[in-house]
Amino acid sequence: MAFWSSGDKIEENDLNASVVRRLTFLLLAVEIVAGLRQFVGSTSEAFWLGWPVIVLTGSFCLEVLPRPRLNSGSRAGRVGTVLVLTLFPVAYYAFLVSVTGSLWSWRELLVICYFFGLSFELSLLYAFQILEAVIERCRKRVGQRWKLAVSFAIRAAFYAVLIPYILVVFAVHRPRLLPTPMTTITASQIETIEFPSRDGATTLRGVFLKQPSPRGTVIVCHGVGANHADIEDIHLVLFESGFQVLTFDFRGHGNSDGHTITYGLNERLDVLGAYDACLARTDVDSDRVFALGVSMGGASLAMALPEMPGVKAAVLDSAFASLTSMVEHQFRFVPASVRPVPTQVARAFGWLEIGADIDSLAPASRLKTLNLPVLIIHGDEDRIVPVEHAHLLHTACRHGTLHIEKQCPHIGTVMVNEAQYARMVTRHFLATVPSE
């Protein structure tokens, strides 16, 4: 039991729980995860919601798991650690709300505190307990001259796994930031909408910007960690150019359901749900439907376009061409000789989280069979999605047009030159309409 307790001895009877109690715990764990899986509609969410219940039930009630312990020796140290772990989720959410100007949500704060405080931090607590126990055991098996080297090697291996794991968790499980109301468009022209994703299990919410005599309707997809209100500049450009706009929050974002982000795997279904909702409207001309996506929204749109035959033209703004390349980009500061290690670890955790190999999330490959005109816009100083991704997307398109904006950051083209952006996008869309 020393392996789990990291030096804190646990009574021998804690190890000798009856077979009945162990089986009861196992069945309870399976039941909790299965029940949550049906409730939330995501394996990843089900695990993270059920994990604290399983651990606390197993450790304190059934005594078949070790109890989570703080390794700090002093009472003040333990109290300080608890305060840090408790306040971190609150500070993290408050910081994001402040930076993005989003609406505050007490409900979302409770969700974040549960996830980070009990699910994520509880996992780290166990991980560090195991680390110290493994180091202690290994040091006992080697000579005095090798103890330091063994400790360093084990810690290095541990952090080689821990850092990619933390990056994946923070990438996939982000706080939902609620959109602020639109103030640049007359309220009578804004319709709140709600529709199902193509999976039929996830409700998406957004707005429809109505025009009395529209030149067409554009489905607009926002980026990761944001919501539809964050790209209001683009909505306004399209609306003032005479287009109706259907914009929505992806799953795990804004007012839509869910808390797990899959970077195009399930978001593709959300785009298709928006497409279905658009075509179902009586005020939409099905011969004048277009689509525009930014960043992850652009990648998700590219993944969905082969299944959207009614879309006449599309715009991908600052989109990535391959999720694998994006993961590699996150470790660009790691020496090239060891970079494959954290990359492969991140891929493994990504597969566990979203249920798919990230290699399958390659928007560029989905564009190769399209006969659709696609305008690809990117800033040459994009530090989030390197400009090379724009070239890969353009190469994959049969009918692609590439525009690289000079001295422009991520999703910055519309801000650098709004009039140019309006002309470029409008010309691209209307070129597919014979009468215009």
Question: Could you please describe the fold and organization of this structure?
Answer:
This protein has 436 residues and is of the alpha/beta class. The protein has 2 domains: 2-141, no CATH class; 187-322 and 361-430, Rossmann fold, CATH 3.40.50. Helix content is 51%, strand content 11%. The protein has 16 helices and 8 strands. It has helices at residues 2-5, 12-15, 19-40, 43-61, 75-100, 106-140, 147-172, 232-240, 267-279, 296-304, 323-330, 340-354, 363-367, 388-396, 413-416, 418-430, and strands at residues 190-196, 203-209, 217-221, 244-248, 289-294, 311-317, 374-379, 400-405. An 8-stranded mixed β-sheet has the order 1-2-4-3-5-6-7-8, sandwiched between helices. α5 crosses α6 (106-140) and α9 packs across α10.
**Computed Rg:** 25 Å
Order of strands across the widest beta sheet? 1-2-4-3-5-6-7-8
Order of helices and strands: HHHHHHHEEEHEHEHEHHHEHEHH
- Determine the strand fraction and express it as a percent band: 5-15%
CATH superfamily of the largest domain: Alpha/Beta hydrolase fold, catalytic domain
Main beta-sheet strand count, sense and barrel state: 8 strands, mixed
The count of domains is 2
- List the total number of helices: 16
> Average pLDDT across residues?
87
Low-confidence stretches: 1-17
CATH architecture of the largest domain: 3-Layer(aba) Sandwich
Helix content: 40-55%
Tell me the CATH topology of the largest domain.
Rossmann fold
Oligomer: single chain
- Overall SS class: alpha/beta
Shape descriptor:
elongated
How far apart the termini lie comes to: 76 Å
Number of strands: 8
- CATH C-level label of the largest domain: Alpha Beta
